[in-house]
Amino acid sequence: MTIKRYGAEGGEGTGGQHLPFSRAVEAGGWLKVSGQTPMRDGEVVEGSIVEQSKLAIENCLNIMDEAGYGLEHVVHVSVVLTDARYFQSFNKVFQQVFGDHPPARICMVADLVIDCKVEVDVTCFKSPLSD
């Protein structure tokens, strides 16, 4: 089995900080996308929980697309919210995106290391034989 790393050179985080991890790793039909926040060009995009949720998920989808995976391949999503009151608003965004392909999910409340309201990671599976 081979392991393919997307963005292994690391990205750029807030304040130009080097991020020492891959955007995603693929092995044996599985794709694990690293936690994505509402960042664009290395900076958190300010906004409501709805706006930040859409961007965090969009960032995951862009990485999935780069690796050749689509919504139909998502098997699990992990969500971190910084406030339990964001739960219903996040669910609305989640439903809009994953409505036809609802994955398993965990949603938790915790502090995040950067100033944002949400972080999302995605696990996908695509049978290597289906290509």
Give an overview of the whole structure.
The chain contains 2 helices and 10 strands. It is of the alpha+beta class and 131 residues long. It has a single domain, classed as 60s Ribosomal Protein L30, Chain: A. The strands form 3 sheets. Strands 1-4-5-10-8-9 form a 6-stranded mixed β-sheet, covered by helices on one side. The chain has a two-stranded antiparallel sheet with strand order 2-3. A two-stranded antiparallel ribbon has the order 6-7. β6 and β7 form a beta hairpin. α1 packs parallel to α2. It is globular, with a radius of gyration of 15 Å. The two termini are 16 Å apart.
Keywords:
24% helix, alpha+beta, 131 residues, six-stranded mixed sheet, globular, 10 strands, 34% strand, single chain, two-stranded antiparallel ribbon, 60s Ribosomal Protein L30, Chain: A
Q: How would a crystallographer describe the biggest sheet? A: 6 strands, mixed
What class do helices, strands and sheet pairing give?
Answer: alpha+beta
Number of domains: 1
* Widest sheet, order of strands: 1-4-5-10-8-9
Per CATH, the class reads Alpha Beta
Number of strands: 10
Element pattern in H and E: EEEEEEEHEHEE
